[in-house]
Amino acid sequence: MPKQKLSLVSRNDELEHQIGDDTAENVKQSLKEWVLEAWKFTLTSGTFVATLILLINAITLIVISAKYPLIDGKVTFFTGSCQTTSTVNTVAHVVINVLSTILFAYSNFGIQCLSSPSRKEIQVAHDRKKWLSIGTPNIRNLFFISREKLCIILLLIVSSFPLHTFWNAVVFETITTNDYLAVVATENFITGADWTLPLHEHESEESMHREIITKLQKALEMEELEELDPRSCYDAYNSETIIKDRRNVLLITDKSYQRVNSHSAVLAAHEHRFQPGILDPGDSIWKDSNQAYIDSWTSVPITQCYSERVDEKCKVNMIPAFLIVVIVCNIIKSGACLLALVITRAHPPLVTTGDAIQSFLEEPDKFTKGRCLASKKSYDNFQSCILPGRSQVWSSRLLNNGGDIWNGGRASWLRAPSTWQYIIIIALWLAMLGIGALGATIIAFGGSGNIPTTDLGVSWSSFASPNSEGFNLPGKSRILAFFLVVNLPQLGVSYIYLGLNNIMSTMLAMHEWCGYSPASQKPAKSLRVSSPIPNTEQRAPYFLSIPYKWAIPSSVIITAIHWFVSEVLNIIQIDTYGIGVNNSTSSQITTANCLFFGLKPFYSALGLGCGGIIVFLLVFSFMKYPTAIPMAGCCSASIAAACQPCSIGGEDPDPNIEFPLGLARRKLKWVVVKKPEETRSGIGHATFSADDVATLKEGQKYA
């Protein structure tokens, strides 16, 4: 049979042939076609999306910084009701986590493209008896790719660290609470009766209390106070530590209640101050050290309650320093994606399994001849073994000089990834669980140490009640550091996503490969390649390397987990307004920085993630790959071995025989092209063919 030499055709050569007439219009059209093809389009769109997100972040930083002042490293850009600020804060974190997940996904795809080897790099690896990964990122590839690509990969990895960690710390909420004076008075106080203050141990506060009580009496006459029934009044002031929309309160006692100071309409005046980490809500706040001692509501027959309503002044803040870090990472990712397009143009990588099959069909690999049954496991077992004779799988052989016995059998999807891939993902989840356990330990024993705890009750939000706990953070200088520490779990979630994506890509790469088996009960299928040739059977690859039915749900789940973590483990500032008459006086505002753990949601988030992994593994553990094809998957050596032309048949077999011209452009199956019984040696051969031939038979030899 005459030798038909087919050189490896790059897409650039085809473009040059298409250009023909070197006109500006043709060059522009060809360049457009090149950019919009497959992974090039994904990298191009990734550059565009990264630039768009960069503009959003930059404009946000410029507008907010120009409009609002920077105070203590933060900018308050919204003030209003606590419900509104909570909504703004939640929406901001949803947007942040969606954008960061999109950017992270594009970055991950960029790493996959850059780490995907070219045919030249594969030949170097095979010459050293090493195989490279096709279609999935793998550390082994980093030792054979160019330094330029390696540097860009490192930039993409390093710039991914701050994405969720810093970005989720950019926006945070400030909740306001009001100190108040609780005044207990007789019924004639309502009609303007005279009163005197009970003895007070703090003389400096006596004048302020007197002024507040006078104001309350006038407000009562003007009907400016809200009247509440005793139960509602008790719930408003005593069941919540955070008092957002109320201040001073006037309590009217029953006529039957007599006190020592019976000539005064005011029986007691108690000042309540918010002290994060010190006040135990289980203790009664209705205590005073003077003679008008009131230890609980039940001992004082309250008939009427008048509450002073105030506007809520909760805030949403931004930390510009953190947003600047995110913008820098944005710039790095935009530039890295652009550089990746330029660098990979000279030597297009084999990004998909179809790319590798096409390359090996057009130019068969010289290192893997006569090993058509060699699987990924075969090369894994022999590659690192230094025992004599154990590296024979890398020795090429004529097809008539030996073969391997096909044992058949179907492998489960769980066998596609390596043991190390499972070890890494399990280690990351254990680390996340450890963080959760540490938080629970701090909460459980915080009261006995230097960090007191405070139960904030149902006043926070649906996510932080009633099972949220927290502690006060010391000093403004340490707040930025605490913000980063709180968001460290985001980093773990990000790399859990990478690990899951890698496992999923490996399983799906094996699934795609096994789809060429005649045992799959499916018709012959075309190659999914990065640059499909027009008017052929070839298909374009998936947008982000894996099918949408897997990519979209996994991205949605990981985004939800990121948002859960940002909501239930965070720092919230508390601004406390003093009891002074003028509520707007800035000197009366004190700020506490508290770290809060929402226990139920935090473990719900962890449970959601762990449960998702368990369901994921259980689903795939019951699925099996079709038989009648070696388990090559992402292994370049195994794919190359399965793409060897048939030279069996005559007494003088031709070792340099090639595949028919244009075979890679047709629909293919991996089948037996020469049966063992048709050869003198009793050794058959299987490879890719456009014809419906035969399948492997157990117990027979193939090479």
UniProtKB/TrEMBL annotation:
Domain DUF6536: 39-190
Sorted UniProt keywords: Membrane, Transmembrane, Transmembrane helix
Highest taxon in the source lineage: Eukaryota
Stretches that traverse the bilayer: 48-71, 91-111, 150-167, 318-343, 422-445, 479-500, 548-565, 602-623
Name this polypeptide is given: DUF6536 domain-containing protein
Species: Penicillium cosmopolitanum
